[in-house]
Write a structure and sequence with these properties.
By secondary structure, the chain is mostly helical. It has one domain (13-103). It has helices spanning 12-33, 36-43, 51-84, 91-103; strands at 8-10, 88-90. It has a two-stranded antiparallel ribbon with strand order 1-2. α1 (12-33) packs antiparallel against α3 (51-84).
């Protein structure tokens, strides 16, 4: 067995980032579609009519646009972090990362 201060192992932080990206990519469409049905129902005057309904529809559409904008920024942020994270670290570094993120949660 090698020296844990020099022996290289797979970086657990990188694995966690890749899992996060995968999970987020799968959920992205759900986030983008958030409030879409509600806004469409309000805009189509299926559930509520009048000036208040129109104002509420505009608010929902604004919030939906904001959610979509924020979600679209997440994957590039995670991709940048993945790009700058080393594929391998020392065994000690991996153990320390695991202890900080799994055992102290």
């Amino acid at each position: 067995m090698g020296d844990p201060t020099t022996q290289k192992v797979a970086n657990p932080h990188l694995a966690a980032l890749r899992q996060l990206r995968s999970d987020l990519a799968a959920a992205t469409e759900t986030f983008r579609a958030a409030l879409k049905t509600t806004a469409a129902d309000m805009g189509g005057q299926k559930v509520w009519t009048g000036r208040a309904a129109f104002g509420w529809e505009q608010t929902v559409n604004h919030q939906r646009s904001r959610v979509t904008s924020l979600v679209d920024k997440l994957l590039p942020i995670i991709d940048a972090e993945i790009a700058r994270t080393p594929a391998e670290v020392t065994a000690d570094q991996a153990r320390q990362w695991n202890q900080q993120h799994y055992y102290n949660a």
